[in-house]
Amino acid sequence: MYLKKYIDNLTLEKNIEKQNKNWFNANDLLKHFGNEQIPNSKVEEWKNFKTKALKDKDWKLPDILSNKTAEKLSSNLNETIVFKDGSYCPDSSSIKHIKGLVIKNIQNYIEENPNFLEKLSYSPKKYAEERLSGILDNQTTTLLSLNCLINQGIVIELEAYKRLRKIIKIIHISKDKTLDLIHSPHIIIISKDGSEASFEEYYEINNCWINSFIETYLEKNSKLNFSRIQTENTNTIKTVSFNSHIAEDASLNLKILNREKSKEDIRIFLKGRNSNAKVSGIIASSNKDDSDIYCKIVHDNKLTNSEQNWRLISSENSKTSINGKIRVNKGAKKSIAKFSSKSLILNEKATSFSKPELEILEDDVKCSHGASFGEIDQSLVFYLQSRGIKKQDAIKLLIFAFIEEIEFEGKIVFDQLESYFKKINYDK
Fold first, then answer.
1. How far is residue 27's CA from residue 281's CA, in Å, rounded to a whole number?
2. How does strand 87-88 pair with strand 101-105?
3. What is the pLDDT of residue 70?
4. In whole angstroms, what is the distance from residue 140 CA to residue 40 CA?
5. HSE-up of 76 (CA within 13 Å, CB side)?
6. Confidence class of residue 410 from pLDDT cuts 50, 70 and 90?
7. What is the pTM of this model?
8. Number of Cβ within a 10 Å radius of residue 223
9. Residue 41: which residues within 8 A CB-CB, separation 6 or more?
10. What is the largest CA-CA distance in the chain?
11. Strand 154-158 versus strand 186-191 pairing type
């Protein structure tokens, strides 16, 4: 079914009532998406990402029945959560042996845990941008409302005081080979008190639009490591919203590899005393494509700490961009917030944009930010060539040196960047 027809069908009263869940009002979401539609460059958080392709295509919904059959993955993977065409596929996943991890759909989870209803409920205002004027701007969240209308989503609960030593992989694949599909995975991770876990997320899908919605809730003393690795996806557009709520003494370590035609919207709320968030990533682009991240961290309590560290690489006629926002609210005394970005521009027509923003409403805090831009040092390239290293390999070595501060698990990012290096014109 085409997305437009699906939305039109929902406007019928009998259909919209069936769509209501215990955690959202479908009519509110439908009005929100219908009124605002897909964000454009007039929306501050979206001005560096082209959305014309999202508006021009007639997107289709995947065949729901195909999601129920098991899919053999390209490799034998353990500790794996599989999403097929945007929906969780338990038969293809490998998590039954993992003690301390439970997966349920959002509806069932709230029915069994009614005390979570208020926390997990979604409305267009939940992640709306609060402007300095005090106005809530919900133009930034229209794609979240669309996601909820399409997919019921799952909750991944991590047992209290349980430490999962192995990395859990979240892999997105497609069974439906129809072109121009919209995939709408919705994932909620609840890290109970004292729990610790690590996740790596991959998208192995081509010729589609991935509109992903992720929420994490870190309870007291919990630790969550989350890495999202974007592989080279042919003709795929990715819009991701990652939102994290962090309680007392809990910590989040988020790492991102963002590539072409990809937009990340990250919002982190340091709600508990001594809560921590470390966000870092590589933003790479090539051809004429955009690679854009908006990251906002809100300090809501005393002794909270945040750090953002970004490396941007632009080649050909492409653009990379990072908008890093830090807001320290009244009462968040003795909080520390840092932002750093470095951009490497490989061609004359390539561009990079970095905008750190500070909103400081408390006096007794330490906040710093810095952004730098540069090109490949040709004298270093010449030196390496004089030592017998080919020009292409010399440039690759310098790029790896540029990004080495962004530490991912193993060599996974370096392997994924090999496809990026093949796109670079080394003669310019």
1. 37
2. unpaired
3. 53
4. 9
5. 0
6. low
7. 0.94
8. 19
9. 47, 50, 51
10. 74
11. parallel
